[in-house]
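Before the break, one more example. Copy the sequence into your notebook; we will annotate it together after we see the structure.
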Amino acid sequence: MKKIFCSAACLLLLLGMSSFMPQPTKVVKKGMVTLACSQQINGGATEKVQLAVDKNGYIKIFDGKSMKGWRGYGKNHIPSRWIVEDGCIKFNATGQGANLEGGDLIFAHKFKNFELDMEWKISKGGNSGIFYLAQEAVSKDKDGKEQLEPIYCSAPEYQVLDNVNHPDAKLGVNGDRQSASLYDMIPAKPQNQNPYEQWNYAKIVVKNGKVTHYQNGKEVLSYQLWTPEWTKLLQASKFSEKSWPSAFALLNNCGGANHEGFIGLQDHGNDVWYRNICIKVLK
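Here is what the structure looks like once it is written out:
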């Protein structure tokens, strides 16, 4: 029976019917995938990371135990305020110790078309964010010295916020700084956030420049990158060409030449937890 099954599968491929079969990317063995993760900013060194893939093709970029494949934005290590706790990645803002290091966190492999899923919860009055298509962009200051641009200068942000107790929820326009919003550009509607210290489910889909945000199972916004409409959104935000020219240039060409980038988690100085982080590569 095994020989018959293999012959039939080969015949399907020869007939050009392989699209009916699963198409895993870079799978080295059943249920696993290998991703090359950069070990330092703009460097050639990479680390090959093996990660589990579920039956639906979602790569578990956080396994609940370790942060392999992750590092600090613009760094070659994980800042000490980011820890693994109870199966979560946590930003430990209230941890003791003057020498604890903060900063944003990235999964150090660039993705282009994908569906990103995770759960998050925020502390009372807390603020954080999920970045995508991020670059570690370097510019020169007025003295000609190189400096790393903040991650939000190159990456759209899915807002993570305690809408009730953080003042940012009342700023911006029409609630575009509340949770699941495209920060400072498009409000999430309906606004169906669960309260602070309760879990929320986030999904971000990027496919050929079309971006859709979901919160707790509901589609809350959609937009198209690299269009006149996208430029118009930027010009009406804090990232406008007049207000912040370097951010405008980077975001207007979001994802860079290859339209791909890192997934990032924001240090905004508050306790925040992320878990069940997985990504599915889309064709």
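Confidence is low (pLDDT under 50) at residues 1-29. Residues 52-281 form a domain with the Jelly Rolls fold (CATH 2.60.120.560). Try to locate both features in your own notes.
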